[in-house]
Write a structure and sequence with these properties.
344 residues, 15 helices, mainly alpha
């Protein structure tokens, strides 16, 4: 793809983010006239305090959360697919999301049994506890994966170990559910459905700042990822330290997944589908193009999913995972059929 075409496509993706951002701010269960929304956003209408609160305390933070979460998951998926040479590898492939789920499972599912009160009743304190538990759980699994990555050579072995960690975490969560009270189980299931609306108040700023600091640094991995595409033998002959490069990529992808999962819950399919969409749009395997493309496409697609999840004529909001699965599953099926057609 020529540079001019790449620039046009990147610009179009940037414009799409702005369009879907405005649609997310304008549309929702509460009907606000489009002109009023524009005036409130640009500080020209101070008359309706309720509408201002809806826009600036609910819709705008939720939209920003969707943008950075979608970008983070998309980049993480691209890193995983490259390092494992597997088009169906996603952000959760190493069990990092399962580690976050396990951490949340311990504090949510056991709070009613040992604490005497469900964590979901504690409001902001409960939400902060869930976030911290998810971060601790995911980082512990990430540390284990990093240790294993230094001990084993093959990507397949590391991939299998990650899958086994996921199974073990799910088994422990199943045992915790058996001993938990109904209210705690319900709170855990709701967390597992994923939501961009869960992040609020000071957490929104913290989440956005963290992701805004991490995402630009992924662009520095473009050369390493391009070398990894050549295979270990050729990359090694070109001077790349395979073990070190693989460890850095896995750690970076894992940190992105850990933070997004901690704040938004386990969001599925975005990280798996977006890299394939970008390869189809830009028709290249060059990560100097794919990395920024995934950031923009992931942000735009997350805004679309968030918009569908809370369509104006619905009183509540659909689980984000239901929408992302409907969007992402056809992409995965397309990859499978395409791979079979090519004889791979």
């Amino acid at each position: 793809m020529r540079k001019s075409s790449v620039a046009i496509s990147m610009t179009a993706l940037g414009v799409s983010i702005l369009i879907f951002l405005m649609l997310n701010i304008m549309l929702g269960s509460v009907s606000i006239p489009a002109g009023t929304v524009v005036r409130i956003v640009f500080g020209g209408d101070e008359s309706n305090e309720i509408w201002r609160n809806i826009i600036f305390k609910l819709r705008f933070p939720q939209s920003l959360t969707a943008i950075v979460a979608g970008a983070g998951l998309a980049v993480s998926g691209l890193l995983m697919q490259t390092v494992f040479h597997n088009p169906l590898a996603g952000p959760s492939v190493l069990g990092i999301s399962s580690g976050a789920s396990l951490g949340v499972g311990f504090v949510v599912l056991l709070s009613g049994v040992f604490g005497g009160v469900a964590l979901s009743r504690l409001g902001v304190i409960g939400e902060m506890t869930i976030t911290i538990a998810a971060i601790v759980g995911s980082l512990l699994v990430l540390a284990l994966i990093a240790w294993v990555a230094r001990k084993v050579r093959g990507n397949v072995t590391l991939l299998i170990i990650g899958v086994m960690i996921g199974y073990i975490a799910n088994a422990i969560i199943g045992v915790l559910k058996f001993f938990s009270v109904e209210e705690d189980i319900r709170a855990y299931v709701i967390w597992g459905l994923g939501s961009f609306a869960r992040v609020s108040g000071g957490q929104t700023t913290t989440f956005i700042v963290l992701m805004a600091c991490l995402l630009p640094f992924t662009l520095l991995l473009a050369k390493t990822l391009n070398l990894l595409l050549l295979g270990d033998y050729y990359a090694g002959n070109l001077g790349l330290n395979i073990k070190k490069a693989r460890l850095i990529v896995i750690l970076w992808a894992g940190v992105l997944v850990a933070i997004v999962t901690a704040y938004c819950g386990p969001i599925v399919f975005l990280g798996l589908a977006v890299p394939h969409l970008c390869r189809g749009i830009f028709r290249t395997a060059d990560h100097r193009v794919l990395l920024p493309a995934c950031i923009l496409t992931g942000a735009s697609l997350a805004l679309i999913c968030n918009l569908i999840a809370r369509l104006p004529w619905m009183d509540g909001a659909l689980p984000v995972n239901s929408v992302t699965a409907l969007v992402g599953a056809p992409v995965v099926l397309w990859v499978l059929f395409k791979k079979r057609k090519s004889g791979a």
